[in-house]
Amino acid sequence: xxxxxxxxxxxxxxxxxxxxxxxxxxxxxxxxxxxxxxxxxxxxxxxxxxxxxxxxxxxxxxxxxxxxxxxxxxxxxxxxxxxxxxxxxxxxxxxxxxxxxxxxxxxxxxxxxxxxxxxxxxxxxxxxxxxxxxxxxxxxxxxxxxxxxxxxxxxxxxxxxxxxxxxxxxxxxxxxxxxxxxxxxxxxxxxxxxxxxxxxxxxxxxxxxxxxxxxxxxxxxxxxxxxxxxxxxxxxxxxxxxxxxxxxxxxxxxxxxxxxxxxxxxxxxxxxxxxxxxxxxxxxxxxxxxxxxxxxxxxxxxxxxxxxxxxxxxxxxxxxxxxxxxxxxxxxxxxxxxxxxxxxxxxxxxxxxxxxxxxxxxxxxxxxxxxxxxxxxxxxxxxx
Length: 384
What we know:
Elements: H1 2-13, E1 17-25, E2 32-42, E3 45-54, E4 58-64, H2 65-75, E5 80-87, E6 91-96, E7 102-107, H3 132-136, E8 140-141, E9 144-145, H4 150-167, E10 177-181, H5 187-199, E11 205-210, H6 213-226, E12 231-235, E13 248-255, H7 257-268, E14 273-279, H8 282-287, H9 295-298, H10 301-322, E15 325-331, E16 342-348, H11 354-371, H12 377-383
Parallel strand pairs: 10-11, 10-13, 11-12, 13-14
Antiparallel strand pairs: 1-2, 1-5, 2-3, 3-4, 5-6, 6-7, 8-9, 14-16, 15-16
Helix pairs in contact: 4-5, 7-12, 10-11
């Protein structure tokens, strides 16, 4: 604890401080989910602003530095079992187990810039909270995002930031044909249409594919009410979607092999961009042989699950590269908002090198042999 507090004080003194998160709440903390702490400067004095995230509301309180440190002492190890300090020099994580024994970890910094410390911080979002579609989907009311949907609103804007960067690499920007596989309630699908049609004055043709008909009926009604004639939703299994005219393929949180189906559809349609956020990794987890070089570690279920995730998504990235895509794997949004936070993006290269493809496919084969895996489902789909 003292090391963690000292790291906080040092980061503030040297202007490295980014933020603190107190998470993994104990049962006695009631409906208080987590606390985010940022620096604010009030009347020339350093304060720490605590945002208390409850199930149905957020409360913000500002404390002078000494009082803020006392508050962190008060909460950590009692109400919350994990404290995460982000600075521009290092990340520091303090963890408590059930017996309240501690472990501290120092990691490479995940943030490079110090945020604005003014009290009234202006947020410049690509999707403004007064967008009509947010009201239609129940995220906002009268042009103001509901407190219960603040996390979803931030997620939407982070998603659009990623899309904006990817689209700058696309040759076909007008009349884009975008397929969103597993569109769900349509939050991100509507946001993308809003961004392209209003901000960029483009005319995208976006289709959301979703198995649950009541959701596609709802989304189609909202799109019609908004007058968005080139946004539509179809109720079907993504494996039955058959259209080779795809410029951008999106599949966020498609479960297990549904992510593989979506990636294969994108590759086969020669899509310029493929964006996935995988969810569940059952296929590979079942195939991994127990008797492999990591068997002493993988006897723990949670580690076996994470290893399956790494292997599954690692092979997906290698296969995308083998089929001519420049691929990145990164954190979509912080773990504060969702446990399923990995994103894989792939942008089509102009030329595919046969030698590189052969090498990458060999790497996939080596990985499978090392872990006793017969076949990755994406491989099977790409062979058909």
